[in-house]
Amino acid sequence: MVSLIILAVIAVLFFYGISIYNRLVKLRTMVQEAWSSIDVMLKKRHDLIPNLVETVKGYATHERETFESVTRARAAAMNADGIQEKEAAEKNLNQAMMNLNAVAEQYPDLKANTNFLQLQGELSALEGDIEKSRRYYNGTVRENNILVETFPSNILANMFKFTKSAFFELDNIAERAVPSIKF
User: Fold this and answer.
1) What long-range pairs does 56-63 form, CB within 8 A, spacing at least 24?
2) What is the pLDDT of residue 8?
3) How does the average pLDDT of the chain come out, rounded?
4) Cβ-based neighbours of 142, under 8 Å, separated by 6 or more
5) I need a labelling partner for 66 at 20 to 30 A (CA). Which of 150, 156, 162, 176 fits?
């Protein structure tokens, strides 16, 4: 009788352990999928920026420094690896884009250009999608990190080398908002 109770407790603990393990795997996969979504959207953003720069270049030919700055920042963002490096590169790209926006403000004909307006709309929509993806990513990271750190799941997490994931966040509070693209 006692051995049957012990066997039942062991079976319950075993299946509980399997449940925790499967949840850890699920959350790790969700974090990877969420990061992949952000990466795809950042790639779309990086592909859209040269078109925007070329359109502005046609109107503001003497603003070479600004265009080169955007181009360098875009290249750095595309080549960044890892979450922290991507965060820093995207911050620099956001700043360069704000400078480009300031240049575009000086040219009323540019603000009326249909191609420019279309690119502006696409970029604005993409920025919103990136922000939503960051929220989803950070939510899955939060769930993963809670499970990795709380008892008793932390025992299995440590045993099977599950680790906390890094949040994708911006240091400057002013940069936390989606950049306003006004031309």
Assistant:
1) 56/100, 56/103, 56/104, 56/107, 56/110, 56/116, 59/104, 59/107, 59/109, 59/110, 59/113, 60/103, 60/104, 60/106, 60/107, 60/110, 63/103
2) 95
3) 88
4) 167
5) 176
- Exposure class string for 62-97: b at 16+ Cβ within 10 A, else e: ebeebbebbeebbebbbebeebeebbbbbbbbbbbb
Global pTM reads: 0.78
Length of the chain: 183
C-alpha to C-alpha distance for 147 and 157, rounded to whole angstroms: 8
- Residue 92's SS3 state is helix
- Residue ranges of alpha helices (H) inside 60-169 are 64-79, 83-105, 108-112, 114-149, 153-159
DSSP per residue over 147-163, as a string?
HHHSTTHHHHHHHTT--
DSSP-assigned letter for residue 167: -
Q: What angle do CA 36, 71, 136 make, to 5 degrees?
A: 25
Contact 100, 180 (CB under 8 A): no
Q: How confident is the model at residue 83 (pLDDT cuts 50, 70, 90)?
A: confident
**DSSP symbol at 82:** S
Residue 162 structure tokens: 């599950």
Q: Is the dihedral of CA 14, 16, 23, 82 positive or negative?
A: negative
